[in-house]
Amino acid sequence: MMGEKPGNKIEEQATEKKLLFLKLTPEKDVDISGYEDALDFALRDKDIKNVAISGIYSSGKSSVIETYKDQKNDKKFLHISLGYYRSDENSENIKKKVKTIPEKGESVEIDKEKNPMKWETDDRLLEGKILNQLLHQIESKKIPQTIFKVKRSVEKKDIVSLCFLIMTGIILFLSLLNYNVWTKYIADTFNFNIWGGVQAICFVLLMALSAYLLYKTINIQLNKNIIKTLSIKGANFESNIEVFKESTESYFDKYLNDVIYLFDKCGADVIVFEDIDRFENSSIFQKLKEINTLVNNRIGSKKKLTFLYLLRDDMFLSKDRTKFFDFIVPIIPVIDASNSYEKIKELLGQQNVLEMFDENYLQKLSLYIDDMRLVKNIINEFMIYHNKINTINLNTNKLLALITYKNIFPKDFSELQLNSGLIFNLFEKRSLYIGREQEALTIEMQALKSEIEKIKKESLVSFDELEALYLSKDLRVNGKTIDSFNSRTELVTEMKISGAIIEELYNNRYYDAALDDVLTSIHEKTEFIERKRYLENRLSGDFEHLESQISDLKEKQSALWFTKIGDIITEEDIKNTIYENIIGETDSFDYIKRNEYYPLIYFLIRNGYIDKDYSDYMTYFYENSISISDKLYLRSITDGTPLEWDYPIVNIKKVVDRLNEDDFRKIESLNIDISSYLILNKAVFKKQIAQLFKLVSSQNKSEYIVALYKQFDDNLKVSLMQMCFEHWSKSFVSIIDNEEVSRGDKENILISLLENVSKEQLSQINESKSINQYLEKSKTFLKLLGNMSNKFISNMRSMDFKFDSVDVVEFKDMRGKMIYENNLYKINFNNIKRVLKYFYHVDGDSVNHKNYTLIRSSTSSLEKYVESNIDLYMGKYLEFSKEKILDDEIYVYIIVNNEVIDLEKRKEYISYLKTNNLNLSEIENLELKEIVITSNLATPDEENIFHYFIQKDKKWSIELISFANKNKDIFEFDYSKISSSYSDEEHIRFFEQTVRCFDLETEIYEKILIAMKYSYTDGFSIPEIPQDKMKILIETKVVGMTEKCLTSLRELYDKNIVKLFIEKNIDRYLEIISDMYNYGELIDILKIDNLTTEQKMKVVDIIDETISVIGQNYSEDIIGYILENKFDDSDFEPLINQYSNYNDSIKNIIREIAVGSVGVIIDNECDVDKHLLDRLLSDTDISVEKRTIIFIRNIKKYTLPELKLGFEKLGLESYLLLLEGRRPTFEINDTNESILKYLKEIKAITSFKKEKGLFRGYGKKKKK
């Protein structure tokens, strides 16, 4: 567990308790298992002289080698640490100028010409650093012959001794030079004679001293090179070299022998080169490897000098590093972004501060930290900062975030303390970011407002009308083009009727089109989709969801000033941050943005770990002083640069004490914390409060009142209401009209107002009815209400206000009951629906379509409320019924007969009814009866038909005819139910008008006339009755079969009607026809299929003339009967010609007629049917001569075999002989000539000719 409140828990430590810190130096007790074996192998093997220990920065390379040194006392290590660290500004430049050895291994290129500041790395710099560190780690006495100068301090006694010897030598030299003068001077002065041997002693001493000094000089010159340069006749000789003397020549190259000397005399087994990779120069490795080789060659096999390099992995870009080194030991990083959390957690635990932090925060922060030294230093600095500035309960998460930022971006942190840098500029631009977000929300609100306006302006009233608007003109429905309809909407309506035939014009031809395809082509149009959305919202009349969105967006806008910068800033904002000073110089902070740790800044700011209170985490806090943020507020007033109203004040009392009354006249003084403090202590700050409201009212800053209101509890809100009324009574109206104030804030203030002000105060505030106007438009006011007090109800009544929409949920508590019982809701569908649902437990479609029935079903407040506002209710009912009303009949009659309701509304009500069983006699207004009939709402029966007929001047009106026709499938007419209800005159009038009502459907026409059983007997004088109606009159016996009626029909109608009339009354007709004989009429009767054979025979008998059967569709019985009784001679030839077409009985009759008329057949050369011909040839009652004539005239009808048979029957033996091949003779006449020609034609004979007054025929000889 990290603690109950991570990030806020404060670890109080006693001042006497010492803080624990972490050192940044390499550890000497790390686990080197694995590494130790590798190093042992490398140092033991004679061939391995250049070893690399590689790993990323802070991977633990130094700790591994330090631990190894501690464990291996038999080896002497010498460290050369080449510290080289670049500042943020030039780090990128160095990377650009220093070129690492690429894959081919060529030398590093260094920009030496553009190097005036001498900060770039070059070979000479590295060599000098290496030699310098080497010189200072070797005792001078071990390297007396080195030519490199090392400055060391000289002891005082050495200087004194040297001075004494030099002075002694000078004195001895001078004394010997002027020996006589010195001896005389001493003798004269001191009265002392010098011994003669003194001169010899002085000379010996001088020689000895000279010899000593000469020895020392030669020794020093040989070992110390006192004489650096010796010039002889223009020649220069250099004897002592100064390291880092200005020169461009390489030390290693020019003084290779002396460099080797130094490495040889260093006395080390291993020389460790550390941080040499920071110079980004790989050529130094070539030279060191060369030196190592030369040194080991000089040393020989007795020992080995190993160069060990601590390098990062990416020093070489390819496999070239294996060419530089004899052995490479890789170091696994102790810490990186993947495991840094565990290490941070461990170290914080060691410091006993782990419980102060949020675990999730540490996990995320650790992703940006991959350096062990960095972790340690962050923790060290945290401990110091936390101990020094944690006197005001700082958030430890934020403190750690700031310390991390300080360590990774120290320059920007330093600039932050001086009110500059990247982070400072980000917070300075907070208002710009808020403005950007507000502008985006404003654009979104404008779009929603625009959509609401478009919805309100939508002129269409149905989806059919909308589809008609985008419908193609090249359509045809049920064969009708668009011009055939009264409107395009009618076309769409008919198009959707099941079975409608839809055709679309293409290439000047109409082709079948599917309804779905036509509608899909419309529905996919962008304009249609948009208009459909507008129409749906308009038809629903509910803009609440759009207005709610606008209100939510306004609240978001207001809340932006209270939003942390991390919630509105984007990564792009940080990337685009640029500072420009007053002279136009800019800083884009590229050195930060290019840094690999740059994402850390976005993480810390985005998650609020670095916020506008960062200054509290950077400086001391003194109890008797005000904070930096408070100072900024005071400065904003004096500077005239207003801060946000929600700008937090830390020590409000001290800030107020520093403000005078004049300060409250400035707009910059407006601050929520300050104003809240004044109102909370209103008794003390009356003048300041008055000045505050005067300032706010003069600036019309009603949104500031709202901001204050949101900060107060209920008691202070009441005080604020009274102060507003006292100092600025119009503030409430201003709040309502202020678009910057969110809907929720407006409504919360109105609730407080209605709960706390008196009627008189409310009347004064609401003088312009602004509150009413707002509440009428509000969709959410009720949702914010608690249980309403009597005062609230009383104020609502005094405003004469009713809620436009009361939700079901709101009805379920006391406030809903109060609204319901006090009729504080408007009569509209939503409210009535919710009342019915909650109080009547009624829901579903019946609420829309059976609303009045539901309301009248029980006595309640709703029923009384509706009845007292019945006309208003009816208007709403018509709207929400969706043109479909299913009220019970009894309530339908109540509504349509209620004259309080506007007549037009009653008409519309009737037109929406979906019943079809209304009784017209229950409706009082004739105009409404007409609508009922027109709308097909009445029962299609005898009572409504007859009633409406009488009401409409005893005529079949157009609407009555239409009503009857529409209901032809269910129409019933029970005349018995009304036969006694009206006068005989009215019944006869109805009958006669019905007979003359030709527009009635035949089914209706027939049902009525059948039911009434009335008929005409004394003639029928109604002309031009349509044929279908006339048939009904005949079939229903409305027209009786009398002589007068028959005469009338013959005069007024064609023979088909007369024929039908006779057919339907045939028996009566046969009774009266003798006195009204008509041949043609009787003949037509014979053609009626429905008459029996007996009836037709009676007709034949009545006819006193012959009757032709040819071309008539008589039955065979009637044909036979006619042939036997009324044979027409003109039928003879057709009958004998069509003999085969008749049945046997008729054939017999025809044969008998033919036998009796053979002479006619011969005389008229009649064409006789072959079968009849056969019968006649076989009939012996006919003479042979006549049969022969008939046969000869019809010879061509026979085949050769049939001819032989015919010749045989008629006894024509000569022709039989001819056909047998003989040559008989024949009498010359036309008959024989015709026969012989036909036989020759059919090739039955070969020829015939005249011979001796006869025809001789030549038959065909038979083949043997």
Name the descriptors.
1264 residues, Rossmann fold, 5% strand
Topology readout:
Elements: H1 35-44, E1 50-54, H2 61-71, E2 77-81, H3 88-97, H4 123-135, H5 156-177, H6 179-190, H7 198-224, E3 229-232, E4 235-238, H8 251-254, H9 256-265, E5 270-274, H10 283-299, E6 306-311, H11 321-324, E7 327-330, H12 340-350, H13 359-366, H14 372-389, H15 396-408, H16 410-417, H17 421-428, H18 430-457, H19 463-469, E8 475-477, E9 480-481, H20 488-495, E10 502-506, E11 509-512, H21 515-523, H22 526-540, H23 544-560, H24 571-575, E12 579-580, E13 586-587, H25 590-593, H26 598-606, H27 628-639, H28 652-657, H29 672-680, H30 686-698, H31 702-709, H32 714-727, H33 731-737, H34 743-756, H35 759-765, H36 770-777, H37 781-784, H38 790-798, H39 808-811, H40 814-821, H41 829-840, H42 846-849, H43 851-856, H44 861-867, H45 870-880, H46 889-896, H47 903-912, H48 926-934, H49 942-951, H50 958-966, H51 984-995, H52 1002-1012, H53 1027-1035, H54 1043-1052, H55 1055-1064, H56 1066-1072, H57 1079-1086, H58 1093-1102, H59 1116-1125, H60 1132-1137, H61 1144-1155, H62 1158-1163, H63 1170-1178, H64 1184-1193, H65 1200-1210, H66 1213-1219, E14 1225-1227, ...
Parallel strand pairs: 1-6, 1-7, 2-5, 5-6
Antiparallel strand pairs: 3-4, 8-9, 8-10, 10-11, 12-13, 14-16, 15-16
Helix pairs in contact: 5-7, 9-10, 12-13, 12-14, 14-15, 15-16, 16-17, 18-22, 18-23, 19-20, 31-33, 34-38, 45-47, 52-53, 53-55, 57-58, 58-59, 59-61
